[in-house]
Structures are given as structure tokens and as C-alpha cells.
């Protein structure tokens, strides 16, 4: 089996070469899917008992960041398809045995609870429509969130179903992140057995059934920090690549009507230096946030809401700053940066849209982290 190191420079280069094709197809190209399967990367967080690599959770972050140097949208899709293997490992043992039996396990996971699970013997009957099903064009399973139970005892839960229970609705006509293929999905009166359900509160707190099945810290990470930090990596990697491309343009771009090289302009030099130091600061924030959670789960301690809230804010800040770096450099790159064959414009469009993910809402993330730092109560449904 391949190691995480299988995400090579050649893999990233291929993502770059296929970025325009991926955008046109509105999904990952077949060659990218084949390369991904060959790499074994989706097995990174699969438990060892099922033949996976069972790597520490943070091992997913750097490869996804590097993939974004090739294509933001492809990195996001691959990152989430891999993350959802980790999410499956939070379910009970029977669900894991069933879904991991025939890998690769490729599952979109739209997590807004826009479905309703009515209780029946040994499970629920599930109906609903979900948006943002990243990677659904390649899926063989799906994980969705729904409000389950009787009317007087509703609780949010995640449900695991085979993709054959789903109808895909093609709505993904967007200006950015097009290769994610994040179409809507509809499920109508599908039976979900009890063992394929897990309470959202347990997943949020790192106490889901799977956390006790495998004796490693990987599956004790709480979900919101895991999801948010992973999702921030394509933005950070994109800002790094835009900074590299900007530096290259400075060395060759002659400013029209001025007749001077842009590299000789002090403000262009300052923009480059500013971008580089801001990215270094983001790496420091990322390392500190990951280290704090790793120390807690290694000690067997629960991850408090304050730490979870600050981790969500750290991820939102990484995206906010990465987007700002890209915007600042594009502002100084001239109109030619916006030709459709120039990767700079694609990076900007992708990160602009990526930043709209609910977990990156900068105002909400700051409000939650501030309220928790003051010891205030936050709504029970808050995403932390």
C-alpha cells in the first residue's frame, strides 16, 4: 500500500495540468480519480483493522495544502473524500465493516440537517434534500445529517446510506470550485438501520462510537476542528501558489506606458514580502492549533468547547487571510491575470467561493470564540 508520500510533486503537477478540464467537467477528471486510487491516499485515515494506514489525523493537512498548488477545487474534493473515510470510522463497528468492505470508500457528506428521519423498527425512514454534496459524482456511499426521532424528541444524527438510495440533481453551475461537483442529492423514504446512525453531539465532542473502537488518537479528534482545518488547507495552498506565480510575473512583466520592470517597483516588492510573511504567520497559527488538540487527545482528555471554538476561528482566519493575500496580489497583477488561461484568476475565483462555506463565516467564528472565552453560553446548535 502506498504511503502519504505518494502525493508527489508529479501528482500535484498533473492536477495543475488538468485544472481547466476539471473546471469544464464540473467534477474530477477520470485520470485524476485513477491517480488518486493508485496513490492510496484515501486510505490515509482508514483504521488499520480494515487495511488502512490509520495515520494521525494531522497527516491529511499538508498533502491537501500541497495539492491546492495544482488545483484548489480538486484538492478540496480529494481532501473531503479522504476525510469522510475518517468520518465513517466514527460510526459503530457494524457500519464500518459494511462500508469499508469494498474500498475505495468514496462518500459525499452534506451535513446540514435538511432531512427528516422517522423512527421505525430497527432504524429510520429517511427523506430529504441536501445541498453541497462535494464529490457526489464519484460516490459509492453517502453520509447525510437529518433530524431524527419523534416530534417531541428530535435529535440531529448522521446517516450512512449506499449511493443507490440517492438521486443527484445537477445544480452545480458556479463561478468557482466547479470541479467539486457539489450537486444536490434527494433521498425519498429510504430505510437506514440503527447501526448506520450516529448522534451529531457525539461526533462534535469526539465521543462517537468509533472513538473507542481503535486505540489511536486519530478518531478522538472532534469533528468541527477536523473539518474546518482540513477545509482551510486548499485556501492556504492556493495563496502560497499565487504568491509563487506573482513572484515569477514580477521577474518578467514590463509595465505598459511606464517601460519599467515590475520587479523594480518598491511597492510590488513590498506586496510580495507582505504576502510571504502573512503566510508564515498562518503556518504558525495552524501548527499551534493542531498541536493543542493533539496534546489533549493524546492525554485522553476531552477537547473543551473553547478549544474547539478557537480552532474553528483559526481555520476561518486562515481562509480570510489567504483570500486577502490572493486579492492583494491580483490587484497588482494587471488585467492579463484575468484571462481564462491564466491560473491566477481560477485560484481567486475558487478561494472566493470556498470562503463562503458556513464553517468559515468570520463574524460567527469570532462571536463564538469570544463568547466561549468569556464563559458565556452559546446556542446548543452552534457548530463548534
Layout of helices and strands:
Elements lengths: L8 H9 L1 H7 L4 H10 L21 H7 L4 H17 L4 H8 L14 E6 L2 E11 L7 E8 L6 E8 L4 E3 L13 E11 L3 E3 H6 L17 H28 L15 H33 L6 H27 L11 H12 L7 H12 L11
Parallel strand pairs: 1-3
Antiparallel strand pairs: 1-2, 2-6, 3-4, 4-7, 5-6
Helix pairs in contact: 4-5, 4-8, 5-8, 8-9, 8-10, 8-11, 9-10, 10-11, 10-12
Describe the structure.
This protein is an alpha+beta fold. The protein folds into three domains: 4-105, Acyl-CoA dehydrogenase/oxidase, N-terminal domain (Butyryl-Coa Dehydrogenase, subunit A, domain 1), CATH 1.10.540; 115-202, Butyryl-CoA Dehydrogenase, subunit A, domain 2; 221-373, Butyryl-CoA Dehydrogenase, subunit A, domain 3 (Up-down Bundle), CATH 1.20.140.10. It is built from twelve helices and seven strands. The protein has helices at residues 9-17, 19-25, 30-39, 61-67, 72-88, 93-100, 200-205, 223-250, 266-298, 305-331, 343-354, 362-373; strands at 115-120, 123-133, 141-148, 155-162, 167-169, 183-193, 197-199. It has a seven-stranded mixed β-sheet with strand order 5-6-2-1-3-4-7. Strand 1 and strand 2 form a beta hairpin. Helix 4 (61-67) runs antiparallel to helix 5 (72-88), helix 4 (61-67) runs parallel beside helix 8 (223-250) and helix 8 (223-250) packs parallel to helix 10. The radius of gyration is 21 Å and the shape is globular. Residues 1-5 have low confidence and may be disordered.
Amino acid at each position: 500500500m502506498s504511503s502519504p508520500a505518494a502525493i508527489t510533486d508529479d501528482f500535484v503537477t498533473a492536477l495543475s495540468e488538468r485544472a481547466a478540464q476539471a473546471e469544464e467537467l464540473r467534477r474530477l477528471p477520470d485520470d485524476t480519480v485513477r491517480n488518486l486510487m493508485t496513490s492510496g491516499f484515501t486510505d490515509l485515515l482508514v483504521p488499520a483493522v480494515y487495511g488502512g494506514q490509520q495515520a494521525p489525523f494531522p497527516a491529511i493537512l499538508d498533502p491537501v495544502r500541497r495539492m491546492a498548488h495544482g488545483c484548489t477545487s480538486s484538492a478540496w474534493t480529494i481532501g473531503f473524500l479522504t476525510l469522510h473515510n475518517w468520518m465513517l470510522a466514527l460510526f459503530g463497528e457494524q457500519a464500518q465493516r459494511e462500508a469499508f468492505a469494498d474500498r475505495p470508500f468514496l462518500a459525499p457528506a452534506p451535513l446540514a440537517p435538511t432531512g427528516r428521519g422517522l423512527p421505525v423498527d430497527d432504524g429510520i425512514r429517511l427523506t430529504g434534500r441536501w445541498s453541497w454534496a462535494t464529490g457526489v459524482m464519484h460516490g459509492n456511499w453517502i453520509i447525510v445529517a437529518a433530524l431524527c426521532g419523534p416530534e417531541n424528541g428530535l435529535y440531529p444524527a448522521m446517516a450512512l446510506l449506499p449511493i443507490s438510495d440517492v438521486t443527484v440533481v445537477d445544480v452545480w453551475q458556479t463561478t468557482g470550485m466547479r470541479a467539486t461537483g457539489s450537486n444536490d442529492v434527494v433521498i425519498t423514504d429510504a430505510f437506514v438501520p440503527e447501526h448506520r446512525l450516529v448522534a451529531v453531539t457525539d461526533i462534535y465532542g469526539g465521543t462517537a462510537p468509533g472513538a473507542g473502537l481503535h486505540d489511536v488518537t486519530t478518531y478522538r479528534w472532534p469533528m468541527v476542528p477536523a473539518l474546518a482545518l482540513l477545509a482551510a488547507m486548499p485556501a492556504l495552498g492556493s495563496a502560497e501558489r499565487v504568491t509563487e506565480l506573482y513572484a515569477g510575473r514580477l521577474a518578467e512583466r514590463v509595465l505598459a506606458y511606464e517601460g519599467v520592470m515590475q520587479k523594480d517597483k518598491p511597492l510590488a516588492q513590498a506586496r510580495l514580502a507582505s504576502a510571504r510573511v502573512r503566510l508564515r504567520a498562518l503556518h504558525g497559527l495552524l501548527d499551534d492549533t493542531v498541536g493543542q488538540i493533539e496534546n489533549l487527545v493524546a492525554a485522553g482528555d476531552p477537547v473543551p468547547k473553547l478549544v474547539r471554538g478557537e480552532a474553528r476561528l483559526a481555520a476561518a482566519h486562515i481562509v480570510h487571510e489567504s483570500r486577502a493575500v490572493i486579492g492583494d496580489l491580483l490587484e497588482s497583477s494587471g488585467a492579463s491575470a484575468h484571462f481564462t488561461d491564466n491560473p491566477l484568476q481560477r485560484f481567486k475565483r475558487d478561494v472566493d467561493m470556498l470562503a463562503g462555506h458556513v464553517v468559515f463565516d468570520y463574524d460567527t467564528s469570532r462571536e463564538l470564540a469570544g463568547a466561549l472565552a468569556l464563559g458565556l453560553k452559546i446556542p446548543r446548535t452552534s457548530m463548534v
